[in-house]
């Protein structure tokens, strides 16, 4: 024994380190059970369980109208700006009317010319009718005189030729009148077209709403030769909007028309807006290796806070139950550390073909000996799972484990409730 103490005296530093290790080991054994972690529990509670499908989308006006120009020309005036409220029939802009107005004048002159031709033809018809009547009486008179021997056959033939000529003149005058009427119809159509083009130099709002896009300024030249250029975009009714949400193919099977929706936008992160599933588009959208489907959500925007183009972070409520027993969803997935688990899985392995119930872990008599329990679950949401059997309200259930700090180890802490 004296040799042991002599060695300690000759090796003081090593002796001190060994002593410290021994003290820490004994302390860990008696106060920490040799473990540097603990199990965290929560109570089985009663409340709501909600199952969600998350997606992202974009806010759109419920009815958006593009206002374009059907004629070409230079914009001379613009009377509205972005966010301007407009009424149906309100003047939005004007295109230089010089050329369309000249075309109207020319077409009107053509109509007047055709009407003058018709009047001339009708006068010719009147003269021809009179001439036909005169020549017809003269022909009849000469026939009577020929019977009495006072007029030769040549005189009768002369009167007959004059009658035939008068009738031909009448037919010609009637044809000229018919041509003049056709010319009037054609010129009138050209006039109406020119007047329509002239009216189209005034860009009119087709409906009431708000201007959400303006693509022209005074001096801009628009060309409508091949397609109608878009000048303005009007949101007809911003009190109701829609969200076009892209839902992954793995989740689309849970989505139904009429389901409630909650969503947020970056502009108002603290506000939760409500919507409803209005339509599920059947056409798939493929991006890279992902396939998604467009879901249309109906949104009330009577307060006017939401604007078109905003990004919406959507949660579609695909299942909800109120006032049910529930546990945190983490509890249904948690497994204690292997050294603390009891070897009670042999029986379950004998019937591998049978569906296995959900296993959770409850605190045991000893802190590091949790007890497994089989439970029945119902609706499983994002945060909680519904419990339909196997647990009672107020029971403690293990949800996770956590590492203990050095101070907690020194204080001998083991299990947190």
Topology:
Blueprint: H1 2-10, H2 12-31, E1 37-43, E2 45-61, E3 64-68, E4 73-78, E5 85-86, E6 91-95, H3 98-148, H4 153-199, E7 202-204, E8 209-214, E9 221-222, E10 230-235, E11 240-248, E12 260-265, E13 268-287, E14 290-300, E15 311-328, H5 346-350, E16 358-362, E17 371-380, E18 384-389, E19 396-403, H6 406-410
Antiparallel strand pairs: 1-19, 2-11, 2-15, 3-10, 4-6, 4-9, 5-8, 6-7, 8-10, 11-14, 12-13, 12-15, 13-14, 15-18, 16-17, 17-18
Helix pairs in contact: 3-4
Counting DSSP H or I runs of 4 or more residues, the number of helices is 6
Arithmetic mean of pLDDT = 86
Biggest sheet strand order reads 2-11-14-13-12-15
Separation, N- and C-terminal Cα atoms: 49 Å
Oligomer: single chain
The stretches of 5 or more residues where confidence is low (pLDDT under 50) are: 28-32, 345-350
The overall strand count is 19
User: What is the makeup of the main sheet?
Assistant: 6 strands, antiparallel, barrel
Shape: rod-shaped
Taken as a percent bin, the fraction of beta residues is 35-45%
What percent of the residues sit in helical stretches (DSSP H or I)? 25-40%
């Amino acid at each position: 024994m004296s040799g042991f103490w002599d060695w300690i005296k000759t090796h003081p530093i090593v002796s001190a380190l060994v002593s410290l290790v021994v003290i820490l080991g004994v302390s860990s054994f008696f106060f920490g059970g040799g473990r540097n972690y603990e199990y965290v529990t929560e109570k089985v509670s009663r409340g709501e369980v909600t199952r969600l499908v998350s997606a992202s989308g974009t806010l759109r006006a419920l009815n958006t109208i593009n206002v374009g120009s059907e004629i070409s020309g230079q914009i001379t005036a613009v009377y509205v700006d972005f966010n301007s409220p407009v009424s149906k029939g309100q003047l939005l802009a004007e295109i230089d009317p010089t050329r369309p107005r000249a075309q109207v004048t020319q077409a009107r002159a053509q109509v007047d010319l055709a009407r003058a031709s018709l009047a001339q033809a009708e006068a010719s018809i009147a003269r021809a009718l009179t001439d036909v009547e005169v020549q017809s009486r003269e022909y009849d008179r000469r026939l009577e005189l020929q019977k009495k021997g006072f007029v030769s056959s040549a005189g009768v033939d002369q009167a007959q030729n004059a009658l035939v000529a008068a009738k031909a003149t009448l037919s010609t005058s009637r044809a000229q009148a018919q041509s003049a009427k056709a010319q009037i119809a054609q010129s009138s159509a050209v006039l109406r077209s020119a007047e329509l083009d002239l009216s189209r130099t005034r860009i009119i709002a087709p409906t009431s709403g708000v201007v959400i896009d303006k693509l022209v300024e005074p001096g801009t030249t628009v060309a409508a030769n091949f397609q109608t250029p878009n000048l303005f975009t009007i949101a007809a009714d911003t009190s109701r909007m829609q969200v076009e949400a892209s839902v992954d193919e793995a989740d689309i099977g849970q989505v139904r028309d009429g389901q409630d929706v909650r969503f947020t936008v970056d502009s108002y992160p603290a506000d939760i807006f409500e919507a409803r599933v209005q339509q599920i588009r059947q056409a798939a959208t493929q991006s890279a290796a992902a396939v998604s489907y467009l879901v249309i959500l109906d949104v009330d925007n009577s307060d006017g806070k939401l604007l078109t183009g905003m990004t919406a972070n959507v949660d579609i409520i695909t299942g909800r139950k109120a006032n049910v027993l529930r546990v945190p969803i983490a509890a249904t997935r948690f497994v204690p550390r292997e050294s603390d688990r009891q070897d009670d899985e042999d029986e379950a392995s004998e019937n591998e073909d049978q569906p296995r119930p959900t296993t959770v872990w409850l605190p045991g008599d000893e802190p590091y000996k949790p007890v497994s329990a089989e439970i029945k679950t119902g609706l499983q949401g994002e945060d909680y799972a519904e419990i339909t059997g196997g647990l009672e309200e107020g029971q403690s259930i293990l949800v996770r484990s956590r590492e203990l700090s050095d101070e907690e180890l020194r204080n001998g802490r083991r299990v947190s409730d």
